[in-house]
Amino acid sequence: MEVINGLNLKDTELRLGLPGAQEEQQQQQVSCVRSNNKRKNNDSKEESAPPPPAKTQIVGWPPVRSNRKNNNKNVSYVKVSMDGAPYLRKIDLKMYKNYPELLKALENMFKFTVGEYSERQGYKGSGFVPTYEDKDGDWMLVGDVPWDMFSSSCQKLRIMKGSEVPPAL
Amino acid sequence: MGLRLPSKVLEHILSFIDSNEDRNSVSLVCKSWFETERKTRKRVFVGNCYAVSPAAVAKRFPEMRSLTLKGKPHFADYNLVPDGWGGYAWPWIEAMAAKCPSLEEIRLKRMVVTDECLEKIAASFKDFEVLVLTSCEGFSTDGIAAIAATCRNLRVLELRECIVEDLGGDWLSYFPETSTSLVSLDFSCLDSEVKISDLERLVSRSPNLKSLKLNPAVTLDGLVSLLRRAPQLTELGTGSFAAQLKPEAFSKLSEAFSNCKQLQSLSGLWDVLPEYLPALYSVCPGLTSLNLSYATVRMPDLVELLRRCSKLQKLWVMDLIEDKGLEAVASYCKELQELRVFPSAPDLDEANIPLTEQGLVFVSKGCRKLESVLYFCVQFTNAALLTIARKRPNLKCFRLCVIEPFAPDYKTNEPLDKGFKAIAEGCKDLRRLSVSGLLSDKAFKYIGKHAKKVRMLSIAFAGDSDLMLHHLLSGCESLKKLEIRDCPFGDTALLEHAAKLETMRSLWMSSCFVSFGACKILSQKMPRLNVEVIDEHPPETRPESSPVERIYIYRTVAGPRMDTPEFVWTIHKNPEIGVSHLAIK
């Protein structure tokens, strides 16, 4: 239990993650950062504290406006929402080379399985349908267009739950 | 017999007083001075749109010609304020349209502006001339088209870093052929391509055009053609510089620039290829402002450009300039007043740029007029801060962002307390300060004691305890805006210094240890403060001692606002009511 200044930070730690998520995911976004090992502490009883959050995941840090961050062409973060989950997540589309990789990552992140994709019927078998918002603001089914076209036009992702999916999909 | 200044005489005297701070003082002298002042104030500035109601402002200043408003807290720039928090321009536009139809200028910062707002502006203010929207959102290019089409005397239209729903480049064609009044046009934040022929014609028929900032979709060819039609420009934001390198392209560009003999400010330069930079050499000797912060160009090319900019006063650049490049700036740009160095790779894990504290030390030593600094750097030292403070006591704005949270002086492993003490003590005119790196409560004792003129203070990942906030709120005589994130303090200091909060515009605290219970006490104790709890969970569902995610406290004469979204909880002054959601759609 990490104690700093007499406060058990775990109690007050603000985390983003689905309720009940047990593992400390490496990619966790935290807005309350615990001090890392460099900090001098009066009580140096630092037990094996969990690894500090990946620095790239600190919300709003370093304080540069998003239009500056997006200048780095090697990164392409999009928001991902899942119907029913209290928090949104963000993923870097550039980390994936094709649809199977992306879908697997989403499945891991939100603990669900997507059904089998077919051009005619969309995703069948699970009740979850991955959709995305393209540059024109339209909501499209993930998987219809070639990967490169998708990754360059995808602005947001939303995993819709079966009951809300219109029959046409 | 009382001696009274006739109001006509007072009016005449006041016509020489522009500064609102002075006018505010004038208005406090006595009732008749208040009356005369309010009837003659033309430029109205409201630093927090929720501090006062639009109706009250419209009523007080009937002769208003220019209105400037700010909405969201500054940390909204870094995504710390959830979408939908507020800052709506509509109530203001509506009120002004009804009461101040002679309004000519509107400047909004960090506000939500809809197309309806823009259409209302276009329809309501016959003499409308100036619209500047900075970091605003909520509107589309349709709204811009309405302004372009209807405001016959439009002189200034600037969209600075706004988030705009871009429905295409047609908006530009809505400027009527009869419109010749344009002095400044900035559409750099838009994505879509505008029809270059429309733009060419607009520029050709605008002889007073002095400032033109294009969006990245404008090509180099387009730029050349525009420069030929507007050689009188003093400010230029280029489009994208990425193009196939053709020899004719280069010489055309070079020639176009060399004909712009009055160019003082240059920006844009997205994707600039180093091979094109020499085209700019002819304008360098005249440049006072250069924004290279989007130019991913390496140090040698930057230096080759900058060594020709002997008159440069303002330089924005990325850390690609390296220490060596800043050393060159220090020796060539002797007139430099403002320096901003941005990180090229904001993700810390990728940082390996040879920019250290030494770069800023070079500039501090070499540029005597340096007064404003924004510097991103991986780590820093106390020695560097001491040198900077000693060499540049004339600093007015010092914002240091040590990107590594909690990073100590990397040479001595000590906190950066001593360094910031030197800054606070030495730079007696400091108005704005941002601190970072490893800082103990002591640093804030020094800042509280010495930073007498600091009006805005930003703090992240610092301090040990409540003492930190205590030092700041019991010192810092001129403090108006305090923004804090991820610091381990909360209740005690906040409640102890509640009265201080009424002397300030606002206090923002996120990811600190402020409990809901303390927020309640504070709100009930201070009737003229709005205490907003911004939290995804209803505060009542958690123990009173548990910390809330974010609080935003500001003084106001308008009472609690009526437009809060679900995640903002205004604490009612009446303890029986507790927390409420007052929302009127």
Automatic annotation (TrEMBL), chain A:
<dbReference type="GO" id="GO:0009734">
    <property type="term" value="P:auxin-activated signaling pathway"/>
</dbReference>
<comment type="similarity">
    <text>Belongs to the Aux/IAA family.</text>
</comment>
<feature type="domain" description="PB1">
    <location>
        <begin position="75"/>
        <end position="162"/>
    </location>
</feature>
<protein>
    <recommendedName>
        <fullName>Auxin-responsive protein</fullName>
    </recommendedName>
</protein>
<dbReference type="InterPro" id="IPR053793">
    <property type="entry name" value="PB1-like"/>
</dbReference>
<comment type="function">
    <text>Aux/IAA proteins are short-lived transcriptional factors that function as repressors of early auxin response genes at low auxin concentrations.</text>
</comment>
<keyword id="KW-0804">Transcription</keyword>
<keyword id="KW-0927">Auxin signaling pathway</keyword>
<comment type="subunit">
    <text>Homodimers and heterodimers.</text>
</comment>
<dbReference type="GO" id="GO:0005634">
    <property type="term" value="C:nucleus"/>
</dbReference>
<dbReference type="InterPro" id="IPR033389">
    <property type="entry name" value="AUX/IAA_dom"/>
</dbReference>
<keyword id="KW-0539">Nucleus</keyword>
<keyword id="KW-0805">Transcription regulation</keyword>
<keyword id="KW-0678">Repressor</keyword>
<feature type="region of interest" description="Disordered">
    <location>
        <begin position="18"/>
        <end position="72"/>
    </location>
</feature>
<dbReference type="Pfam" id="PF02309">
    <property type="entry name" value="AUX_IAA"/>
</dbReference>
<dbReference type="GO" id="GO:0006355">
    <property type="term" value="P:regulation of DNA-templated transcription"/>
</dbReference>
<dbReference type="InterPro" id="IPR003311">
    <property type="entry name" value="AUX_IAA"/>
</dbReference>
UniProtKB/TrEMBL annotation, chain B:
<dbReference type="GO" id="GO:0019005">
    <property type="term" value="C:SCF ubiquitin ligase complex"/>
</dbReference>
<dbReference type="InterPro" id="IPR001810">
    <property type="entry name" value="F-box_dom"/>
</dbReference>
<keyword id="KW-0833">Ubl conjugation pathway</keyword>
<dbReference type="Pfam" id="PF18511">
    <property type="entry name" value="F-box_5"/>
</dbReference>
<dbReference type="InterPro" id="IPR041567">
    <property type="entry name" value="COI1_F-box"/>
</dbReference>
<keyword id="KW-0539">Nucleus</keyword>
<dbReference type="GO" id="GO:0010011">
    <property type="term" value="F:auxin binding"/>
</dbReference>
<keyword id="KW-0927">Auxin signaling pathway</keyword>
<comment type="pathway">
    <text>Protein modification; protein ubiquitination.</text>
</comment>
<protein>
    <submittedName>
        <fullName>F-box domain</fullName>
    </submittedName>
</protein>
<dbReference type="GO" id="GO:0010152">
    <property type="term" value="P:pollen maturation"/>
</dbReference>
<dbReference type="InterPro" id="IPR006553">
    <property type="entry name" value="Leu-rich_rpt_Cys-con_subtyp"/>
</dbReference>
<dbReference type="GO" id="GO:0005634">
    <property type="term" value="C:nucleus"/>
</dbReference>
<dbReference type="GO" id="GO:0031146">
    <property type="term" value="P:SCF-dependent proteasomal ubiquitin-dependent protein catabolic process"/>
</dbReference>
<dbReference type="Pfam" id="PF18791">
    <property type="entry name" value="Transp_inhibit"/>
</dbReference>
<dbReference type="GO" id="GO:0009734">
    <property type="term" value="P:auxin-activated signaling pathway"/>
</dbReference>
<dbReference type="InterPro" id="IPR041101">
    <property type="entry name" value="Transp_inhibit"/>
</dbReference>
<keyword id="KW-0217">Developmental protein</keyword>
<feature type="domain" description="F-box">
    <location>
        <begin position="1"/>
        <end position="48"/>
    </location>
</feature>
